[in-house]
Design brief:
Length: 301
Amino acid sequence: MDRLIAMRVFVTVVDLGSQSAAADHLDLSRPVVSRYLAELEEWVGARLMHRTTRKLSLTAAGNETLPRCRQLLELADDMQAAVDVPSDAPRGLLRISVSTSFGQAQLAAAVTDYVRLYPQVSIDLQMLDRTVNLVDERIDLAIRTSNDLDPSLIARKLTVCRSVLCASPAYLREHSALQQVDDLSGHNCLTHSYYGKSMWHFTCEGEEVSVPVQGNISANEASTLLSATLAGAGISLLPSYQAGVFVQRGELVRLLPEAEPRLMNIYAVYASRKHMPASLRSMLDFLAERFTDEPVWDKYL
């Protein structure tokens, strides 16, 4: 039995959810797929899957075996890549998790430029406004905006995330002007469901100030808040990487520029330095060079 092929069959059956789908994907017959699964179970010494006519499910032994099979297959692929491409040119699939707002505003253009440089690399962008488990969800790289990262992960700082207090000209024509941050309590503030839902934080003349806010629209990602702000719904605290160009065009007005919203950092986060593929290493270097501590989008403010 070719144990590597058997492990690849097992992983593919799990990922695709059926033996027939795995057979089509691997260009094998259904009986061959079944034989590889049976031989792998015989080698492991335990049943790996419950098989019914409707679905497949992993046994306890299957759950233990699956991540080890993935690891061994990754090692085998790394060895093959080293032989096939002596120059260690980046190649293969990179799965990247990123927030919808940063993905749309900045990262999509960045990875487009990256794949022009490294055409043997494919990018799967997962636009997710939640914290993902890199290992369980098979994410190679996560772009996270935070000041409090999981210490078990490896992080490389890319740039800073400044926020902009802003509103549309239409909203400002209909409502009283802001003189100080405390005036926000009298305005309709559009808030993020997870960040600053009821309290916005600023630095004013060197002092930390927190202001309670409320409004009739909240959302779990910044792109929706941007659209509502442009439509005149209220005042928002938006990332400068997203709002800066609209301030430059006059579609949004920056409010109280002397009040500095709380600064956050943008990191590239990954699970391990061991057996890092060339594609991930080159992507990290590419993003670190592209996104600096003085990001280009802040020039619009």
